[in-house]
Amino acid sequence: MFSNIMIPVDLAHVDKLGHALKCAADLAGLYGATVTYVGVSAATPSSVAHSPQEFAEKLKAFAETEAGKHGHKATAHAMTSHDPSTDLDPTLLKAVDETGADLVVMASHVPNITDYIWPSNGGTIATHAKVSVLVVRG
Amino acid sequence: MTDESANQGIPEPEGHSDIIDTEYEIGQDNIDGSVGPFGFDIHNPVFLISGLSIVAFVFYTLALPEQAGDAFSWLFDTVTKGFDWFFLGAANIFVLFCLLLIVTPVGSVRLGGADATPDYNYIGWFAMLFAAGMGIGLMFYGVSEPLSHYASSFGGVSVGEDGVRTDWAPLGAAEGDEVEAARLGMAATIFHWGLHPWAIYAVVALALALFSYNKGLPLTIRSAFYPILGERVWGWWGHIIDTLAVFATLFGLATSLGFGATQANAGLNELFGIPVGPTMEVLLISSITAIALISVLRGLDGGVKILSEINMGLAFALLLFVLVVGGFVAIMTGFFDYLLAYFQYLPALANPIGREDVNFMQGWTSFYWAWWISWSPFVGMFIARVSRGRSVREFVICVLLIPSLVCVLWMSVFGGVAIDQVVHAGYTAAVDAPLELKLFKMLDELPLTGITSLIGIVLVIVFFVTSSDSGSLVIDTITAGGKVDAPVPQRVFWCVFEGAVALVLLLSAGGLASLQSMVISTGLPFTIVLLMMCWTIWSGLQAERKLG
């Protein structure tokens, strides 16, 4: 049913992604799909990497670890953004096109009052992406 | 398992660069969490110290306006009179240092690694450099400064009983000589808007870009001090440097916002008869800050970049209009003549010691240098963020020479036409008007006044928005320990407080004079920071070159 599952990952907060990572891996096993791990970074040094190149290498290593753990096919796709605080949604939507994914699995927090002002990334992607989006809470 | 073409989201390979090996991890001193539903990720203690001081400052000024007003004027006098030589001397060093970078082999080092490519094209890049770097100032001083210097030069020298000059004319003035007074006035104006301010910006921007893109350190001011302080830069020394940068930026911005509000108010009064006064200024600053908030929420590419490009288009149209109706040939002749006058008077104007024109040197030049220096962390960081992939030579030439030339053109057109109106047409309304009104009075004499004045007001407001927005972005990055992906509510906090500082200083404690005294006093310690940066840039570039 799905052949390419995209999952956005924040390498600085991998601990919060447990459910979504597991869910994507299980679905990949079920449909024999490839999981594409997408990371977004600024060109400036961050807590994850000193340069976009190093960021891409770390993301690739993360994808390999996940693939080894769950036994599915995996690729990594690193994106750079000028202003990740505000550009995350459009950058992820661009990644959906670039990777040719047919399903997006995304972690999201439980909605609260601020979602009226700043909608969650998961919510925005589900509204605007042309492919199916599975938003995983918690 | 993994795909070799996986890295296609990255623009280009980075190539070699001399990464500094440090134990420090970006964000390791940060506290993250949430206040109610709002998330935050801030540097401890830089955010806390600067945030609390600013809040305390706003309340102090509101509670004891008179006492605060006295303190501000004392500060202004002490710093401008006691340290004028220091500001002037330091600014000369920055210009010479930039010229050195252009001509020496270190100019070939590329920001972001040997093979990095630029993030933005020239048009977007220049628009952002400009809107961030001068913006409101060009609108406020474009007509008023050349006219003021012209009038004071024409008026000649006057000496008080104590033997100190009481006039405000630059150098030896040009009493009764219309042509020379115009040349001297324009030379002095170009001096304040040309090479010196842009050299100050270039130094800070280069330091940030080099230590962040090439050395892998966080994008904050303290990173540039790694060659001097080593690992201690992550401790209190670094906290002090970053906090100073936040203060300088905040007060520098608030001054510009104060100018912007006064000028927009004066323009609206001239055009629509809207009353001038505190109520209107409160309304203006609040509503423009609200517009800035929308731009903040839209981010770098969706907010500042688009607004900057719109503004450059409008400013260019206004420039072209004044150029055409004001007499193209005369103005262009003036442009070259004024440029010549600038180089002719430059050594005397830049001389830091033994000056007789004390009012001009302290009241104009010292204040300007302090103002540009207080803006430099903000403009410098902003320039650094959009300049990855340029070579050092290209970077310095583009940040130093091209904006300087555009400033000369801008001043020649607006100032030249205004001076021409006085000299040849005997039109004195602009020369007699207060500073904030001079631009509109000059436009009054040209055709289509209604439209051009309206464009003038729109430009002031949009420059206000871009400054406030990019300022919030920069302060947020510094107070988040160099993180550029901190939660957006923090930027909202800074944007609101920039407006608040501008408001309380403008309204309650002596108006623009109090803003200027805060600029000068935060600019002073930061000048020392900048002087040390020249050395760290030099040593950092040498290390890059050895590697290449």
From TrEMBL, chain A:
<dbReference type="Pfam" id="PF00582">
    <property type="entry name" value="Usp"/>
</dbReference>
<dbReference type="InterPro" id="IPR014729">
    <property type="entry name" value="Rossmann-like_a/b/a_fold"/>
</dbReference>
<feature type="domain" description="UspA">
    <location>
        <begin position="1"/>
        <end position="137"/>
    </location>
</feature>
<dbReference type="InterPro" id="IPR006016">
    <property type="entry name" value="UspA"/>
</dbReference>
<protein>
    <recommendedName>
        <fullName>UspA domain-containing protein</fullName>
    </recommendedName>
</protein>
From TrEMBL, chain B:
<feature type="transmembrane region" description="Helical">
    <location>
        <begin position="85"/>
        <end position="108"/>
    </location>
</feature>
<comment type="similarity">
    <text>Belongs to the BCCT transporter (TC 2.A.15) family.</text>
</comment>
<dbReference type="GO" id="GO:0022857">
    <property type="term" value="F:transmembrane transporter activity"/>
</dbReference>
<dbReference type="InterPro" id="IPR000060">
    <property type="entry name" value="BCCT_transptr"/>
</dbReference>
<feature type="transmembrane region" description="Helical">
    <location>
        <begin position="195"/>
        <end position="213"/>
    </location>
</feature>
<feature type="transmembrane region" description="Helical">
    <location>
        <begin position="120"/>
        <end position="143"/>
    </location>
</feature>
<feature type="transmembrane region" description="Helical">
    <location>
        <begin position="492"/>
        <end position="512"/>
    </location>
</feature>
<dbReference type="GO" id="GO:0005886">
    <property type="term" value="C:plasma membrane"/>
</dbReference>
<feature type="transmembrane region" description="Helical">
    <location>
        <begin position="446"/>
        <end position="465"/>
    </location>
</feature>
<feature type="transmembrane region" description="Helical">
    <location>
        <begin position="366"/>
        <end position="384"/>
    </location>
</feature>
<protein>
    <submittedName>
        <fullName>BCCT family transporter</fullName>
    </submittedName>
</protein>
<feature type="transmembrane region" description="Helical">
    <location>
        <begin position="396"/>
        <end position="419"/>
    </location>
</feature>
<feature type="transmembrane region" description="Helical">
    <location>
        <begin position="282"/>
        <end position="300"/>
    </location>
</feature>
<keyword id="KW-1133">Transmembrane helix</keyword>
<keyword id="KW-0813">Transport</keyword>
<feature type="transmembrane region" description="Helical">
    <location>
        <begin position="518"/>
        <end position="538"/>
    </location>
</feature>
<feature type="transmembrane region" description="Helical">
    <location>
        <begin position="312"/>
        <end position="336"/>
    </location>
</feature>
<keyword id="KW-0812">Transmembrane</keyword>
<keyword id="KW-0472">Membrane</keyword>
<feature type="transmembrane region" description="Helical">
    <location>
        <begin position="46"/>
        <end position="65"/>
    </location>
</feature>
<keyword id="KW-1003">Cell membrane</keyword>
<feature type="transmembrane region" description="Helical">
    <location>
        <begin position="234"/>
        <end position="262"/>
    </location>
</feature>
